[in-house]
Amino acid sequence: MVHNTKLIHFEIHGGAYGNLIAIESGKGIPFEIARVYYIFGVENKVRRGFHSHINLYQILICVSGNVKIEISNPFEKEIVELNHPSEGLLIGPFVWREMFDFSDNSVLLVLANEHFCEEDYIRDYEVYRDLAKEYFERLEI
Ligand code: T46
Q: What is the pLDDT of residues 27-58, one digit of tens each?
């Protein structure tokens, strides 16, 4: 997978009466949860994201419907489809992300390890590309 990303599978507690997934801060996920938000009511033709973060770690879970996430850096690119509440996509620093192809009534739940901070965003792709090249070259990918 693209560096600083990972798929996480959550255990389903299921039965004849339906399913339940529990996510506990720091247990089975690599951080303490500081913030939860969800994206919903997105029309199918809309594409969102178009940014990277400098420090933030997040886990994206499509708890209803499905959505595609394009994750990339200047050297790698991949499209991940999230289509089940038991699949989470971990995205760390310096990963450019774009979310698209939201199905009707989809809900994208996001767990984050920090409170909202606009200064942690890189929203200009050219700025991102230069900083990410430096960052990933230091990691020698
Ligand atoms: C990300 C992807 C997956 C807040 O006030 N608090 C928050 O916690 C968040 C996440 C956003 N906002 C405000 C900032 C903007 O005025 O909500 C507005 C929409 O945010 P944005 O345009 O950044 O939304 P997306 O869908 O492009 O990106 C969001 C997250 O911001 C981002 O961290 O990784 O979802």
A: 999 999 999 999 999 999 999 999 999 999 99
